[in-house]
Each structure stands twice: as C-alpha cells, then as structure tokens.
Design brief:
two-stranded antiparallel sheet; 14 helices; 330 residues; alpha+beta; Nuclear Transport Factor 2, Chain: A
Length: 330
C-alpha cells in the first residue's frame, strides 16, 4: 500500500507533536489514529501472532502507534507509511518476546540454528493455520514466515523490516517452514486455575452489572491504572470510565476465558439476543485490582479470537457453551 501519512501543521513546521500519555487522548492523536485506521487490523494481526496473544498484540500495537505519533516529524513525505509502522511494531514485538520469560520458555525447543533443506511455501489457504503456529518459532523466523506466507511481503520488504538481507530472510524462511512442517499436533492448553482471581473477577462482574461503582472502586487499588483503547490511559480514579458505562447502550459483563487467560466479556443486546462486543482484561496483585484494559474500540480482537476458535470447531457463546457459527452473524 503506497498511502502516505498526512502531517500536521506542527510537524511540517519542524515541531514534534506532543502526546501526554496520561489522561484522555488529545484530538490530534485521534486524528492520527483515523489516518492509520486502514492498517490497524493488519498491524494487530501481526503483533498478535508474534506474541501469541490477541490482547498482548493490541497492547503492543497501541504502544507502537504512540511511538509513531511522537516521531511523526521524522517520517519523510516520500516514505511509505506501512513499512514504517510495521517496523516500529516489529521492534516492539521483539522487545516483548525478549522480556517475557514465558515466551522464551515456549521457544526454547526451537532455538537452534541447524541447517535444513529448503521447504516450499505454504499453499493457498494455509495462512490462517500457519499464523496460529508461528509462536513456536524463534522471533526472526516467526517474523519472516508471518510476513511472507501470511502478509505476502516481498523478501526486500521483510529484510528492511527485520534488519537482515534477502539471503538472510530466505534462510530464516527455510528454517521456519521446516520447523512448522515437523511440529507435532498442539494440544489445547487448559486455562490456568487461579481461585482467588476467579473469585475477584466474579465479584467485579456482579458489582459492575449492578452499576455499583463504589463497590467496584473498593476492589481496586488507589493507584489502579486504566487503559481504554483509543481514548484514555492513566489513573482509574481520574477517568470518566463508569460514567460512560452508565449512559451507554444496553450491556452486560461476564467472566470467560480466551487463549487460556481469564478475561471479562462485555455483551451488547441485539434485539433479544446478547452478543459479545469486546473484552476487558483485569490484572490483580495481592487480591486487589491494579490494572484494567478495556478493548471496546478494537473489534478486530473479537474477530480474531472467535475466528480462531471457530476454525477449531466451536467458540464460546454468551452463555458459556458452544454455539453454531450463525449465532454471531450480524
């Protein structure tokens, strides 16, 4: 895609845009998000597959967009927007992988750089299966397989993005494809059982659905952080979070599990049917909630999670059971 970013007057005059990471996002940043909206689904998909988590992928993409906005004055008008954003997102993903011991543990069995024979590219229709398995590859091979076999980037584009050469990308592709071809069937991981967190989330949902905002606040720490995608990042106590829920469309919240993680799902009422709308991630420390991430503005997360589960046979219903595909048709 050859679209170029539109610079603000401040950037054109040599002033770097400012974005206060605390509080409500300013209008200029929201305008920037509109400018890059056509790339966000692909950026999220890439970050999610690199990290192995749809929610972690969204968090990383948000960080990448923050960084891109702050550095917008450094982007030359003749430079394509897509490679620049993908490069920033890729670097964020690599940092995330390197600092997460759980990810490193998952990759330990595939860390060697043995020489393997070339493997043919995957056939048409294999992309969705590949992108769910690449998390088992080392970061460079993971990125190369994703960018080539799923996103159809050229070798030259991939080399520029991962900081390699076309020959290095070919080698990484060969190694990654061979490892994927030899990968044994992956059992579905059982969600981690944390009775204390389950109890806390159950109470949070009960109070939230009752619109007992004082009760909800009592479950959180004084310095609890809130991130609402595309809208707010800062202290929960300084936010209009509960006011927005008070005046919103009919909704309900319920606990569920996605990708082995306990989360909250917000359902919206469509006629007489409750349907999942978005996820909320709650983090607790010592039995007290200290961080909330609300993904209401990110429909692509829902599409990815339920799309993956659908291809696995079935996916959660608003009642927690398994339903046919038609249930979630718009």
């Amino acid at each position: 895609m050859n679209q170029q970013i539109r610079k603000s007057p401040e950037a054109r005059q040599g002033f770097e845009p400012r974005l206060d990471p605390e509080g409500l996002f300013d209008l200029r940043y929201r305008a920037f998000l509109e400018t890059v909206s056509h790339l966000r689904v692909r950026l999220h998909r890439y970050c999610a597959r690199m990290t192995g988590s749809a929610l972690d992928g969204e968090d990383i993409m948000q960080e990448a967009l923050f960084e891109a906005y702050r550095k917008i004055g450094l982007l030359d008008d003749t430079q394509a927007l897509r490679p620049w954003l993908f490069r920033i997102a890729h670097n964020k993903c690599i940092d995330f992988i390197r600092t997460r011991r759980t990810r490193l543990k998952a990759e330990a069995g595939y860390a060697s750089d043995e020489i393997v024979l070339p493997v043919e590219p995957a056939g048409a229709g294999a992309g969705r299966a590949i992108e769910r398995l690449v998390v088992h590859l080392p970061p460079k091979e993971r990125a190369c397989v994703l960018l080539k076999d799923v996103f159809d980037h050229s070798l030259e584009e991939i080399a520029g993005l991962v900081g390699s050469t076309s020959g290095g990308v070919k080698s990484a592709l060969n190694r990654g494809r061979a490892k994927l071809a030899a990968l044994p069937a992956q059992p579905v991981a059982a969600p981690a059982h944390d009775p204390e967190l389950e109890r806390l989330l159950g109470r949070y949902v009960e109070l939230f659905n009752a619109r007992d905002w004082d009760g909800v606040r009592a479950l959180t720490s004084a310095d609890a952080q809130l991130r609402v995608s595309d809208c707010y990042n800062g202290l929960l106590s300084d936010s209009p979070y509960f006011v927005e829920y008070e005046r919103g469309e009919p909704w309900r919240m319920r606990p569920d599990t996605i990708e082995g993680e306990a989360v909250l799902v917000v359902d919206r009422l469509h006629g007489e049917v409750w349907r999942p709308a978005y996820f909320v991630r709650v983090h607790a420390d010592g039995g007290v909630i200290d961080r909330i991430a609300d993904y209401y503005a990110c429909p692509w997360i829902l599409e990815m999670v339920f799309g993956d589960a659908e291809r696995g046979g079935a996916f959660p219903s608003p009642q927690g059971g398994k339903v046919r595909n038609a249930h979630f048709a718009s």
